[in-house]
C-alpha cells in the first residue's frame, strides 16, 4: 500500500499520519462541572465565612490595619472645615432658641444641654468615622472573598474532558493529538503563582485545528469564553475558533540547575523564561504549522457565562502537552556542501527544519511515558530544479547501455535541543517517490520511534533536510537576513498606576462600600434626629436660613470621599511601595526563534535596548522572514513566582500538599485551601509593608505576521517574502496595540482604538549569501 501523501503546502509543510486512535472525539459538551470543576456558589455566603477566617489571621494584615489608622485621620481632617461651619450654624440656632418653636426648639435645647454644639457634632462625626473604618475593614474581606471565588475555580484549574482521574500521572484515555495553523503564540501573563500549579508561566499556543481535529474545541465555550468587561473597541487576543495549548515553561527546566527551587531576581527572568528563549529552538509563532499530543482538559477558570454559576460551560484545551512538532523553511549549512576551502564561505542551501520535542514533565501533572507507538509524519521537501534523467557515459545512438541516472541527493542534519535535558533522537527518514516519474522527490516520511523515546524524561531533535549542491547553484539563491531590536518606546499608555489599578479592579466592591456607609450613616442620630429629619430653619425676623442637616451631610460626604480616596492612595503605597513603575518582560521572535529581555523600569519615551535581541536567518527564494513580539508587565501576584518553590505552596499542617490533595479535598479541608489561596494572594510574599492585594500581571500588546499579506517592503511587511526581494537595509518601527486583562476571568484583549502600547525600533538587513 502506498504511503498516504499530503498536498505540498508551504504554509502547512508537514502532517501527522497513522494516529486515528488519538484524534479527539466526540466533540466535548463543555460540562466541566461534571468532570470535576467547582463553582462559586458551593460555599454559600463567602464574605461572612471569609470574615471569620480573616479575624483569625489579622496579624498578617498589619499594613492594612495601619492604613485604617491613617485613613481615619485623613477623613477627620477633611471633615473639620465642614464640622466647624456646622457647629457655628448650630450655635446660631442655639442663640435664636427663644424665637424658635416646635421640634427645632427641642433640638437646640438638647444641643445646649449637651454642653456645646461642637461637642455634639464631634460626637456625631466620631460615630461616622467609626462606620467608615468598619466598612473599610470589611472591604478587605470583600477583596479576599473575591480572591477566594477565583480560588474555587482553580482548585483544580484543569479537569479531564474524558471523565476520569484528575490526579497522579495522566492516563492514556485523556491524551489526544491535534494539529493546525497557529493563530497566536505568547507567554501567558497571568498564572496561579503556587508551585502545585506552575513552576513558571505557561507558554500559550493557539491554533486553528485541521478538520480532522475539529472536535478538540468545545463549541459551547469557544476561546475566549465570554466578553465580561470588554469595551466596544476591544477584541480578544485569542482568535475565534482556536484551540489553546499551554505548557509550563519552568517544568521543562526541572532538574537542570533548576532556578525555581531557589528563586531568582527579576533581572534573571530572561535566563529562566523557558528553554526556547535562547533562540536555538523552533518555537511556534503565528502562521506556523504545529502538531501536539497531550492531556485534553477543561479550563475551570474560563466559562461561557459567569451568571451560570451552577453549571457553566467551560473551555476545552490541552494542558500539559507531552510532545510537540513544528517546522520552518530556511537555508541550512550541511557538511556535505562544504568545499573544504576556508575561503569559499558559507554554502547554505534551502531546507526544511523540523523540530520534535517530547517531555514527561508538565508542571502540575506528568506523563508515565512519552509514546505508546511510533510518531510518523509526512514532511515536504524544498523544491529543487534537478530532474532525474539518464546521463551518457559512452552511449551512442546504436548502443544505449553506457548510461547512469543522476538523482538529487537528500542531505540530513540532526541537532539536539539545549536547556531541557532532552536526549537526542535519531529519526528515520524515508524519501517518498514522486507522483510523476522523473521528478525529484517532494516529500519524506519521518518516523520518531517509540524505542528512541523509551526510558527518557525528555527527548527531541532539530532535523534539517536539504539537497546536495556541488555547484553552489542553490547556495547562490540564499539571502542572509538580520533583524535587530535595538530600541523601544514604552509606556505610551500608563497601566501601572497603583491607585487606579485597585479601583478599577475592585469597582463593584467600592460601589458596595459606599452604599453600605450611606445606609449606616443614615441610621446615626444626632441628638435624637437623623440627618434627613433636621429641618431647614429661617431665623426670624431677618436672620439667615440655616440648613444644619445639609451641613452635616456635607461634613459626612467630605469625610467619606476623603476616607475612600485616602484608603486607595494608601493601598497604592503598600502595593507599589509608593513608586509607580512598570516592569516589563518582553519576548520577541523571528522565524520561530525567541529571545526575552527584562526592563526593570519602563519609562515613557524611547530608550535603547542593552544587548539588543539580534537574529540572523538564512532564507531561500521561496521563504519568508517574519517576526512576533509581546510580553508581560509584572505586578504583585506575578512577583510571587520569583520566590523559591518552598515559599509559594498551598499547605496543610505546615506541609505542602500534592495536586491529588487539592483535587480530592472536600468540606472544610477544601474550604481551608480556598481561603489560604485567597489570603496568600492578598498578602503576597514581598514582605515588609508591601501587599499583593490580588493584583495580577497585565499583558503587553502582541504583534504578529499575517501570511495573507506577504510583501517585500522591509519597513511594513510581515512576513517579508524573499521572492524578488533585492538586498537592502531599512529601519522599521513596529507598533503593538494596547492590551489588558479584563473581567473576573482575566480575558486578554487588545484595543484597536487605544494609543499604541509600545514601539520597537528595528533594523533589518538583507544581503546575498554569495555576492
What does this protein look like?
Strands 5, 18, 23, 24, 31 and 32 form a six-stranded antiparallel sheet that branches. Strands 3-4-6-8-7 form a five-stranded mixed beta barrel. It has a four-stranded antiparallel sheet with strand order 1-10-16-15. It is about 25% helix and about 30% strand. The two termini are about 45 Å apart. By secondary structure, the chain is of the alpha+beta class. The protein contains twelve helices and 32 strands. Mean pLDDT is about 85; it is low at about 110-115 and about 390.
Q: Strand count, sense and closure of the main sheet?
A: 6 strands, antiparallel
Rg estimate, integer Å: 33 Å
Shape: elongated
Low-confidence stretches: 111-115, 388-392
N/C terminus separation = 47 Å
Which oligomerization state do the chains in this entry correspond to? single chain
Helix content: 10-25%
- Please state the structural category: alpha+beta
Number of strands: 32
**Beta fraction:** 25-35%
Please work out how many helical segments DSSP would assign. 12
Average pLDDT confidence is 86
Task: Please render the helix and strand layout as text.
Elements: E1 14-17, H1 46-55, H2 62-95, H3 102-113, H4 117-153, E2 158-160, E3 175-187, E4 202-209, E5 234-236, E6 243-248, H5 259-262, E7 289-303, E8 314-332, E9 349-359, E10 375-380, E11 389-392, E12 403-406, E13 410-415, E14 423-424, E15 428-432, E16 443-448, H6 450-453, E17 458-467, E18 479-490, H7 498-505, H8 507-522, E19 537-538, E20 545-546, H9 548-576, E21 583-590, E22 593-599, E23 605-608, E24 614-619, E25 624-625, E26 627-634, H10 636-639, E27 651-652, E28 655-656, H11 659-664, H12 667-683, E29 698-703, E30 720-721, E31 728-742, E32 747-768
Parallel strand pairs: 6-8, 14-17
Antiparallel strand pairs: 1-10, 2-7, 3-4, 3-7, 4-6, 5-32, 7-8, 8-9, 9-17, 10-16, 11-12, 13-17, 15-16, 18-23, 18-24, 18-32, 19-20, 21-22, 21-26, 25-30, 26-29, 27-28, 31-32
Helix pairs in contact: 1-4, 2-4, 2-9, 4-8, 4-9, 4-12, 7-9
Amino acid at each position: 500500500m502506498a504511503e498516504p501523501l499530503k498536498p505540498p503546502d508551504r504554509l502547512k509543510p508537514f502532517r501527522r499520519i497513522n494516529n486515528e486512535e488519538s484524534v479527539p472525539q466526540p466533540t466535548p459538551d463543555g460540562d466541566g462541572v461534571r468532570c470535576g470543576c467547582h463553582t462559586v456558589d458551593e460555599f454559600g455566603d463567602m464574605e461572612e465565612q471569609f470574615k471569620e477566617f480573616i479575624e483569625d489571621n489579622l496579624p498578617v494584615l498589619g499594613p492594612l490595619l495601619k492604613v485604617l489608622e491613617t485613613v481615619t485621620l485623613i477623613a477627620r481632617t477633611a471633615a473639620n472645615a465642614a464640622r466647624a461651619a456646622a457647629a457655628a450654624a448650630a450655635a446660631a440656632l442655639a442663640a435664636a432658641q427663644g424665637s424658635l418653636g416646635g421640634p427645632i426648639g427641642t433640638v437646640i435645647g438638647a444641643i445646649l444641654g449637651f454642653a456645646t454644639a461642637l461637642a455634639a457634632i464631634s460626637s456625631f462625626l466620631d460615630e461616622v468615622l467609626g462606620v467608615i473604618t468598619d466598612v473599610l475593614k470589611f472591604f478587605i474581606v470583600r477583596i479576599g472573598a473575591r480572591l477566594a471565588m477565583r480560588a474555587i475555580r482553580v482548585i483544580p484549574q484543569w479537569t479531564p474532558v474524558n471523565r476520569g482521574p484528575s490526579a497522579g500521572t495522566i492516563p492514556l484515555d485523556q491524551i489526544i493529538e491535534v494539529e493546525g495553523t497557529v493563530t497566536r503564540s505568547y507567554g501567558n501573563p497571568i498564572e496561579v503563582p503556587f508551585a502545585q500549579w506552575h513552576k513558571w508561566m505557561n507558554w500559550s499556543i493557539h491554533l486553528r485545528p485541521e478538520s480532522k481535529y475539529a472536535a478538540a474545541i468545545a463549541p459551547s465555550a469557544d476561546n475566549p469564553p465570554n466578553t465580561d468587561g470588554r469595551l466596544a473597541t476591544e477584541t480578544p487576543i485569542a482568535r475565534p475558533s482556536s484551540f489553546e495549548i499551554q505548557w509550563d515553561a519552568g517544568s521543562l527546566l526541572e532538574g537542570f540547575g533548576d532556578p525555581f527551587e531557589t528563586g531568582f531576581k527579576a533581572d534573571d527572568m530572561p535566563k529562566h523564561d523557558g528553554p526556547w528563549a535562547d533562540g536555538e529552538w523552533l518555537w511556534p509563532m503565528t502562521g506556523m504549522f504545529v502538531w501536539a499530543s497531550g492531556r485534553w482538559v477543561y479550563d475551570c477558570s474560563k466559562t461561557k457565562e459567569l451568571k451560570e454559576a451552577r453549571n457553566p460551560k467551560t473551555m476545552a484545551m490541552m494542558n500539559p502537552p507531552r510532545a510537540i512538532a513544528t517546522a520552518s523553511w530556511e537555508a541550512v549549512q550541511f557538511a556535505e556542501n562544504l568545499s573544504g576551502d576556508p575561503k569559499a564561505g558559507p554554502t547554505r542551501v534551502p531546507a526544511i527544519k523540523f523540530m520534535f520535542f517530547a517531555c514527561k514533565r508538565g508542571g502540575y501533572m506528568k506523563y508515565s511515558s512519552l509514546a505508546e507507538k511510533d510518531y510518523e509524519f509526512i514532511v515536504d521537501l524544498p523544491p529543487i530544479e534537478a530532474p532525474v534523467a539518464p546521463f551518457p557515459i559512452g552511449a551512442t545512438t546504436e548502443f544505449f547501455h553506457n548510461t547512469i541516472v543522476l538523482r538529487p541527493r537528500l542531505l540530513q542534519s540532526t541537532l539536539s535541543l539545549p536547556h531541557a535535558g532532552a536526549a537526542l533522537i535519531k529519526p528515520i527518514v524515508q524519501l517518498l517517490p514522486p507522483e510523476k516519474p522523473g521528478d525529484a522527490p517532494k516529500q519524506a516520511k519521518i518516523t520518531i520511534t517509540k524505542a528512541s523515546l523509551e526510558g527518557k524524561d525528555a527527548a527531541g531533535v532539530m532535523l534539517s533536510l536539504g539537497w546536495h549542491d556541488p555547484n553552489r547553484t542553490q547556495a547562490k539563491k540564499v539571502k542572509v537576513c538580520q533583524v535587530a531590536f535595538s530600541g523601544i518606546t514604552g509606556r505610551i499608555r500608563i497601566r501601572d498606576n497603583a491607585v487606579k489599578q485597585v479601583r478599577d479592579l475592585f469597582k463593584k466592591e467600592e460601589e458596595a462600600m459606599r452604599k453600605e456607609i450611606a445606609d449606616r450613616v443614615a441610621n446615626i442620630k444626632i441628638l435624637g434626629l437623623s440627618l434627613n429629619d433636621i429641618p431647614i430653619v429661617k431665623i426670624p425676623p431677618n436672620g439667615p436660613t440655616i440648613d444644619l442637616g445639609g451641613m452635616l451631610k456635607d461634613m459626612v460626604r467630605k469625610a467619606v470621599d476623603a476616607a475612600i480616596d485616602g484608603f486607595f492612595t494608601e493601598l497604592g503605597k503598600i502595593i507599589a511601595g509608593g513608586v509607580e513603575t512598570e516592569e516589563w518582560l518582553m519576548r520577541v521572535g523571528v522565524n520561530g526563534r525567541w529571545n526575552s529581555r527584562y526592563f526593570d523600569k519602563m519609562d515613557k519615551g524611547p530608550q535603547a535596548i542593552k544587548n539588543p535581541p539580534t537574529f540572523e536567518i538564512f532564507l531561500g527564494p521561496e521563504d519568508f522572514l517574519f517576526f512576533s513580539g509581546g510580553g508581560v508587565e509584572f505586578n504583585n501576584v506575578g512577583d510571587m513566582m520569583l520566590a523559591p518553590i518552598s515559599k509559594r505552596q498551598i499547605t496543610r499542617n505546615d506541609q505542602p500538599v500534592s495536586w491529588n490533595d487539592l483535587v480530592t479535598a472536600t468540606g472544610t479541608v477544601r474550604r481551608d485551601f480556598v481561603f489560604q489561596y485567597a489570603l496568600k494572594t492578598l498578602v503576597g510574599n514581598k514582605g515588609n509593608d508591601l501587599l499583593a492585594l490580588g493584583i495580577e500581571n497585565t499583558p503587553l500588546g502582541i504583534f504578529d505576521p499575517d501570511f495573507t499579506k506577504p510583501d517585500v517592503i522591509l519597513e511594513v511587511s510581515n512576513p517579508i517574502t524573499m521572492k524578488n526581494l533585492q538586498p537592502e537595509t531599512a529601519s522599521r518601527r513596529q507598533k503593538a496595540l494596547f492590551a489588558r486583562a479584563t473581567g473576573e476571568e482575566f480575558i486578554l484583549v487588545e484595543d484597536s482604538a487605544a494609543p499604541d502600547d509600545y514601539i520597537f525600533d528595528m533594523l533589518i538587513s538583507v544581503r546575498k549569501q554569495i555576492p
